[in-house]
Design goal:
mainly alpha; about 0% strand; globular; single chain; about 260 residues
């Protein structure tokens, strides 16, 4: 809400600024779940400044959330062309390939990004997610440990617990849950963070309980529920479709898996 108020104030001062329109688009998507409003805001930002890399980046993630991979690729590639050294944009191109289940290209893109900066935690996170999706759990653990070493936050820790669970290292995964509980006493943790660990432990009830709280909290990570392979094991459960409906994703375009990007 504070971000939205700031963006609206900026637009009241100057409606021709691309930046607040793009920021408002991100807020519409990740907090309001107003997908049509988000698209209008991104389009307005790009109309005002076609060279604005962040608007192309966020618009690409908007399409990615809906599994509209070709449109996502177009926008993310335009973002990369306008900011070739952006670690986030380059890594989200890898995330796009991961979500499209093109694991080899996801790994290739991660490695290209790590050539720019070998210490960028988010790239190691996406690399670990890709190894997890491939079933290479020991590699995933290594990648998530690197991510956690570089950024000691709940998100990296939860994915490490996720990989431990998938690898059958239940004691280590349970220890991660304990660490997250301790961390939650010091700062807010998005409920989806806990859901990820429970998915790795194949505890669907606990995962859905966390996702239910995520809906109540307006957890921004929910927008990737439809595309992220991390959630594949939940898709056959009716509760999964219920969560998608609540965030407004169920009625959007179906996943175009297997397309060549």
């Amino acid at each position: 809400p504070k971000g939205k108020a700031a963006a609206l104030k900026a637009l009241a001062l100057d409606d021709a600024l691309a930046e607040p329109h793009a920021s408002l688009g991100l807020i519409h998507e990740e907090f309001d779940w107003d997908w049509a409003g988000a698209e209008r805001a991104f389009l307005r930002a790009l109309q005002l400044n076609p060279g604005y890399a962040s608007a192309h980046h966020w618009y690409g993630l908007h399409f990615l959330s809906q599994c509209r991979f070709l449109e996502a690729a177009t926008q993310l590639q335009r973002a990369q062309e306008r900011d070739v050294l952006s670690l986030a944009i380059n890594t989200n191109l890898a995330f796009l390939h991961l979500c499209a289940r093109d694991f080899d290209r996801a790994i290739q893109q991660c490695r290209k990004t790590l050539e720019l900066d070998a210490h960028f935690w988010y790239t190691h996170l996406i690399l670990g997610k890709t190894f997890s999706a491939q079933g290479h759990y020991s590699k995933a653990v290594d990648a998530f440990q690197l991510a956690q070493h570089q950024y000691t936050g709940g998100r990296t820790l939860s994915h490490l617990g996720y990989a431990y669970g998938l690898a059958g290292m239940r004691q280590e995964a349970d220890q991660v849950l304990t660490q997250l509980a301790e961390l939650s006493h010091k700062k807010y943790l998005a409920p989806s963070i806990l859901a990820v660990v429970h998915i790795g432990l194949k505890n669907a009830d606990a995962a859905f309980a966390a996702l239910e709280q995520a809906c109540k909290d307006r957890d921004p990570n929910l927008v990737y529920l439809k595309c992220d392979p991390c959630f594949d094991s939940l898709r056959a459960d009716p509760r999964y479709d219920s969560v998608l409906q609540r965030i407004g994703l169920a009625t959007h375009a179906s996943a175009d898996m297997g397309v060549v990007i």
